[in-house]
């Protein structure tokens, strides 16, 4: 029952704090004004909604978890990300500057002991895992920066990133509890609740956006929690599980990178080839697309929990099957085709 209280409290706090975040956004003039056809909204909408999600997560985490080294690392790193997000929502930062903030926040995690310690290769004898030592530092940075940007990339539709992250966090809650990592599980649940409270204002038609403040905070925090809840262990399923739990943003980002390479465009250049763009092009409404992708994210989440509960060989068989199905789906939907600028 205490877990339910955490979830509800985080959701209520986020719900209450969002109007305050909206006022701050107007005062700072952190407003998203549609300037091109990539924007799906037609009128200016305040950003900084992620501030409400962050504050809700911060308050409830401190109340229920207390002072712990891993939580301190996550909160300090997340604060750096949020500061960067606020600046970016006020005036857009260059990608290189964002990357510096993301790397700095990643190094904070490592300094507080949140680091990838093992890499899994299923064909190896025994557990299939081996200790990576100092190589865990660049691997951790790559994972955190990658997931942070992956969530940021799917934040192109009302309520999409917020809802997907809430579902992914619930999945990590299940995975963490199965693996006996209670703190990571609690943080996942709190994060999921904080997202849900904000979603009331962010679902189509959105009255406020989470902005980079929210999308980058959510990506960073999910990456950090996934390390604590799954990747950090020597379990052979360590890599497969978070890849499945965070499947939607990971695969959409990978396909975006491949698509831009095919089109001879910069990796960081925006386009209209993302999954939600393709579904909109098929005639679905914004609400329908969001719900469809919530369902897809939920399937990924259930699959990740299933992978955590079976043998090593079966877990990687599940991952291979999912990857094959996703590739077939992406090809059919045209996620790898040339797109308009």
Automatic annotation (TrEMBL):
Judged by the first EC level, this protein's enzyme class is transferase
- Keyword vocabulary terms for this entry: Cell membrane, Magnesium, Membrane, Metal-binding, Transferase, Transmembrane, Transmembrane helix
Q: Can you supply one Gene Ontology CC term for this chain's record? A: plasma membrane
Question: Could you tell me the EC number(s) of this protein?
Answer: 2.7.8.-
| Compartments where located | Cell membrane
Q: Name one GO molecular function term.
A: phosphotransferase activity, for other substituted phosphate groups
Organism of origin is Thermobrachium celere DSM 8682
Which spans are transmembrane here?
45-64, 71-87, 99-118, 130-151, 157-175, 182-203, 223-251, 289-310, 316-336
Question: InterPro entries attached here?
Answer: Glycosyl_transferase_4, PNAcMuramoyl-5peptid_Trfase_CS
Q: Which cofactor does it need?
A: Mg(2+)
Q: Does the keyword Oxidoreductase apply?
A: no
- GO biological processes: cell wall macromolecule biosynthetic process; cell wall organization; lipopolysaccharide biosynthetic process
Q: Lineage of this protein's species? A: Bacteria, Bacillati, Bacillota, Clostridia, Eubacteriales
Q: Where on this chain does Mg(2+) bind?
A: 152, 212
| Annotated protein name in UniProt | Undecaprenyl-phosphate N-acetylglucosaminyl 1-phosphate transferase
Q: How would you describe this protein's topology in the membrane?
A: Multi-pass membrane protein
Coiled-coil regions listed in the entry? none
* Stored PROSITE patterns: MRAY_2
């Amino acid at each position: 029952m205490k877990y339910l209280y955490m979830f509800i409290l985080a959701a209520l706090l986020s719900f209450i704090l969002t109007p305050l975040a909206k006022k701050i956004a107007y005062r700072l003039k952190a407003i998203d004004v549609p300037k091109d056809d990539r924007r799906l909204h037609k009128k200016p909408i305040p950003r900084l909604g992620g501030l409400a999600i962050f504050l809700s997560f911060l308050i409830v985490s401190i109340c229920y978890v207390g002072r712990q080294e891993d939580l301190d690392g996550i909160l300090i790193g997340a604060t750096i990300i949020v500061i960067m997000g606020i600046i970016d929502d006020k005036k857009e930062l260059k990608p290189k500057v964002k990357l510096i903030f993301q790397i700095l926040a990643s190094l904070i995690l490592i300094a507080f002991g949140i680091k990838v310690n093992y890499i899994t290769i299923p064909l190896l004898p025994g557990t299939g895992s081996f200790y990576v030592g100092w190589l865990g530092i660049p691997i951790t940075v790559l994972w955190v920066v990658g997931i942070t940007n992956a969530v940021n990339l799917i934040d192109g539709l009302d309520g999409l990133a917020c809802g997907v992250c809430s579902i992914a966090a619930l999945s990590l809650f299940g995975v963490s509890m199965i693996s006996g990592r209670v703190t990571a599980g609690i943080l996942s649940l709190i994060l999921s609740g904080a997202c849900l409270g904000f979603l009331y204002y962010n679902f189509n038609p959105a009255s406020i956006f989470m902005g980079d403040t929210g999308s980058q905070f959510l990506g960073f925090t999910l990456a950090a929690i996934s390390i604590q809840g799954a990747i950090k262990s020597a379990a052979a399923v360590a890599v497969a599980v978070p890849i499945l739990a965070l499947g939607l943003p990971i695969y959409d980002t990978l396909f975006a990178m491949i698509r831009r390479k095919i089109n001879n465009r910069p990796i960081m250049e925006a386009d209209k080839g993302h999954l939600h763009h393709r579904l909109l092009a098929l005639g679905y409404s914004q609400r329908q697309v969001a719900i469809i992708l919530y369902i897809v994210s939920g399937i990924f989440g259930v699959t990740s929990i299933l992978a955590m509960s079976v043998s090593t060989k079966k877990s990687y068989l599940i991952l291979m099957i999912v990857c094959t199905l996703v590739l077939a789906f992406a090809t059919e939907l045209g996620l790898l085709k040339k797109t308009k600028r």
